[in-house]
TrEMBL record:
The keyword Transferase applies. Keywords: Transferase. Residues 26-195 form the Glycosyltransferase subfamily 4-like N-terminal domain. GO terms for molecular function: glycosyltransferase activity. Pfam families: Glyco_transf_4, Glycos_transf_1. InterPro entries: Glyco_trans_1 (IPR001296), Glyco_trans_4-like_N (IPR028098), Glycosyltransferase_grp1 (IPR050194). Residues 205-370 form the Glycosyl transferase family domain. PANTHER family: SULFOQUINOVOSYL TRANSFERASE SQD2, TEICHURONIC ACID BIOSYNTHESIS GLYCOSYLTRANSFERASE TUAC-RELATED. It comes from the Archaea. This is Glycosyltransferase. The keyword Transferase applies.
Amino acid sequence: MTHSVLASAVNHPDAINPYIGLFNQRIVQSFMRHGMDVDVVSPRPFAPPVGPHSEYSMLPTVEEWDGYSVHHPRFFYLLPKRLFYGRAGDSFAKRIPRYVERTFDVPDVIHACHIYLDGYGMVDYCEKHNVPLFVVSHGHFMNEYEELADGVREKVDETLGAAEKVLCVSDALAEKAAERVPRSKVEVVPIGATPSRYPVERKAALREELGVDPEATVALFVGEFCERKGIPELAEVLPDLDLPNTEFVFVGHGGDEEWTLRRALASSRFSARHVYTGITSMALRRWLAVADVLVLPSHAEGRPTVIYEAMAAETAVLSTTVGGVPEQVEDGETGVLIPPGDTDRLREALTALAGDRERLLEMGRKGRERLVEQGWTWDDHAERVYQLHREALE
C-alpha cells in the first residue's frame, strides 16, 4: 500500500548549489523507488538584489530535479545567523505552510529532513491537518544542543515534542534524543549508500584517466574545508609527512579553512593539483573508487554519509572516535579510528596506512561487506522509513 509524503528539506540540491544536501536527494529518490508518492518543498531565503547570494533571485519557484519537482517558496533569513536564526524559523513557520496549503493536497505524512528549520516550520500545519510529523536528526541539533541560542533551543524542543517519531541516523544520536523525548518516540534509521553505483571494477582505468600512478596510495578527504572536519589537523601534519608514492585528494564545498589547507600543501611534498571545491556526484563516486583510504579527522559527526559511500566503494576509512563513526567503522578491520584533534596519532596512522596498501585493500573489502550485512543501503533505509510511516498511519 502506498502513501503520500511531503518532504521538507531546506538542504536539497538546486541549480545554484547542486552539492548541498545530496543525502536528502538520496532520501527522496529512495522513497520514490519504494513506491511512495513524494512531493518536495525546499524553501529558500529571499535573495538580496546585489552582492553575496543575490544569484538566488534567479532560482525558479519550481525546478525539475532528477525526475521530480522541487518547490522553492521563500522566507526571510537574516544574518548574522547567531543572532537571527530563531527569527528565520518564525518566518519559515509563517510562510511555508501557506505555500503548502495553496500548492499540494494534504499528504499522509510530513517527513522533515532536519529538526530545524524543516520540522519546526511544519508543526502547526501537522496539528491543523492531523498529519504525523517525522523529523530526522543527523547530528547538529543533538550534538550541539547546549550551544544553540535560547530561541532556537526552544523551537527544537517544540518540534521534538510534536513529532510522531524522531529518526536518528546513529545509536549515539538516539541516546541524546532520548534525553529530550520519550524513548518510544526515537528510532535509529541509518542512511547509507548503494554499492552498485561505485565503479570499483574500473579502478585501474580510472586511475589512468585521472593521471594517478597505479601503484600510488591515494588518500581522499571529502567534506567542508572547516575546523569541524579536522582541516587544521591535516594542515599541521601535511608539511611533515614523508610518504613516497602517496597522493592526497581534497574534495570540498567551501569553508573558512580552504586557504589554510592550500598553504599547507604548498609547504609539503604533496601536489595541490587535486583540490576540488565542487564536483559532480558521479565524479565523487569515481574518486571514492580510486581512493585507498578516506581521511576524515572530524571533531563532531552523526554518521557521515561519506563513510557509507567509502564503504560502498571498498575504500578503507581513517576517522575519529566521534558521534556515530565508531558504529560505522570497525577499528582495525574496516578502518582506523583515532581521537579527535590528536595530530600525533593522525600522523602515525597516515604513515602506517600509506605504507601498507594491501592492508587498505583488505579493509576496503571488509567495509563493503559490512555495509551490505548491516543493511546500510538506500533501499534498506526506505524500507525502514516506510514501515514506520505505515505504523503511524494504521
